[in-house]
Amino acid sequence: MEQKIDIKSLTLEELKKKLNTKGEKAFRAKQMYEWMHVKLAESFDDMTNLSKNFREKCRQWYSYTTLRTVRVQESAIDGTRKFLFALEDGNVVESVWMRYKHGNSVCISSQVGCRMGCSFCASTLDGLERNLTPSEMLEQIYEITRLTGERVSNVVVMGTGEPMDNYEHLLRFIKLLTDENGLHISQRNLTVSTCGIVPRMRQLAEEHLQITLALSLHATTDEKRKRLMPIANRYSIRELMEVCDYYFSQTGRRITFEYSLVGGVNDTDEDAQELAGLARPLCCHINLIPVNPIKERNYVQSDASRIKRFKNKLEKNGINVTIRREMGRDIDGACGQLRRRFVEGDPLQEEE
Ligand code: SAH
Fold this sequence. Notes:
Layout: E1 5-6, H1 12-21, H2 26-37, H3 52-61, E2 62-63, E3 68-74, E4 81-86, E5 92-100, E6 103-107, E7 111-113, E8 128-131, H4 134-148, E9 154-157, H5 167-178, E10 190-194, H6 198-205, E11 212-216, H7 222-228, H8 237-251, E12 255-261, H9 269-279, E13 284-290, H10 304-316, E14 321-323, H11 337-343
Parallel strand pairs: 1-2, 6-9, 9-10, 10-11, 11-12, 12-13, 13-14
Antiparallel strand pairs: 3-4, 4-5, 5-6, 7-8
The protein binds S-adenosyl-L-homocysteine.
């Protein structure tokens, strides 16, 4: 059987063309697009201004991506909510909803699992299962909007997966999410985080988007970085700094460096000094993340005084730096922890 077209991954122009070949008028496409991406319809049947007959035809032509909410955990500390969603093929992904003063932020996954192998990260322990489609990325935001009843203003692609390893779908997702005919989230309110796949970062720079690019740096020398991140065997820190500079030159957007502080591994005064040296020539901002320990590894967080000292050292060097507030620590906050517990058959399955 021929595979149905994933309607929610089509741009408005593409949908117009597809419907045109079926003899449908352009305004139909506009109506449907609005149902999907603005009114967040959950099925073709929600689209009440389309005839029953037409809705039936749509069901035959197209697949309509939806997610099933398997689990919601809410932090008693800060109200952060973590969602576990089942995809149509039974795989599960996790997304996080955070409330900040400036609006609600959602962190989404871009893949089921991950093949990058970072040693401190729970998402990669079982490798990559598959890429998410653009509609599956969007639907994480749409479903959270339906469930919370609140508008999402910021999106970060920092959940499970390496977005640059799913580049085509990522770009399409960005196009749809920021489209003025859709949810219309500002490009400036979207951040994409990468472990540092240099050719894709270069390609992204050439798209001339206004999104924020975040680089997971985590170490200041190639040798140290290789111990934490296998991708460091492919691309050197020098190449990374060059491509970050290129991204800024092409987009005018300041780069974010993410640096997870791991006790006794990358948190010395010398590390801070080297990090300042790397950051100084670039237009960037550093986000320090106290590592979130996972049970499969022995990594520990740097203690609070060490984190403060590290931050001070950077600031004395004129670097713009923040410490990421730890949200949802009590609800498996670290990337991939909730999904992993679920897949491993932790009792949380039975609570359903
Ligand atoms: N693959 C992308 C995006 C997903 S991870 C990337 O590597 O950037 C989002 C961020 O969380 C990355 O900076 C990642 O290195 C970091 N991270 C993953 N697990 C972590 C943990 N246990 N503690 C702290 N930071 C972690």
